[in-house]
Amino acid sequence: MYNVLFLCTGNSARSILAEAYLNSVSGGQFHAYSAGSHPKGAVHPLTLETLRHSGLPTEGLRSKSWNEFAREGAPAMHFVITVCDSAAGEVCPVWPGQPIGAHWSFPDPAAFQGSGQEARPVFREVFRQIRARVDLLRNLPLAKLDRLATKKELDGIGRSR
Question: What are the two backbone dihedrals, phi and then psi, of residue 4, each rounded to the nearest 5 degrees?
Answer without folding.
Answer: -125, 130
